[in-house]
Design goal:
There is one protein chain. The chain is an alpha/beta fold. The protein has a domain at 63-141: Nucleotidyltransferase, domain 5 (2-Layer Sandwich), CATH 3.30.420. The chain has helices at residues 20-36, 87-103, 121-133; strands at 63-67, 73-77, 80-85, 110-115, 138-141. Strands 3-2-1-4-5 form a 5-stranded mixed β-sheet. Helix 2 crosses helix 3.
């Protein structure tokens, strides 16, 4: 007997998982993260000098003092990020942090200076003298990654 041309053939069930919807969801999430990631970057925008340096050993997070090329001072410590400060406020804040560290028996407060490379040497030295007035003994200077050496032909 001849099969009818209108007869439907029964195919075996496809038991494989369809991953296309999951890929679509992942691509949407990727786009969302790519758009929002630049908005999450915080910090004072300074142009760091590029040099290879050794890192400071630390058991606690350092206090970061940022100095812009216009002379503005910002401080970041614990949960306080980029607080604008004057020199007297900076001395008071760092003195309080140093005394809290001494009371808890922790290591002395470490301060990292995040200064723009266009700052004058004297301005950075004044900031370091201010840190010394606050009783800070360990001070480091932040730098950016060094630029690659040009190829010699």
């Amino acid at each position: 007997m001849k099969q009818s041309p209108y007869r439907r053939e029964k195919k075996a069930l496809n038991a494989e998982m369809n991953v296309v919807p999951y890929i679509d969801v992942m691509l949407v999430l990727l786009v969302i993260f790519m758009v929002t990631a630049p908005m999450l970057i915080t910090g004072v925008d300074v142009d760091l000098p590029k040099e290879q340096t050794n890192t400071m050993s630390q058991s606690q997070l350092p206090v970061i003092v940022s100095l812009t090329d216009t002379g503005e001072i910002f401080i970041s410590y614990e949960n306080n990020i980029d607080l604008p400060m004057s020199e007297p406020e900076l001395i008071n804040t760092l003195s309080n942090l140093q005394s809290q560290s001494n009371e808890l028996g922790e290591q002395p407060v470490q301060v990292m200076i995040n200064a723009d490379q266009n700052n004058q040497y004297g301005v950075i030295m004044t900031l370091m003298a201010t840190l010394q007035q606050a009783g800070i003994q360990k001070v480091g200077l932040l730098t950016g990654a060094p630029l690659p050496a040009p190829a010699v032909p």
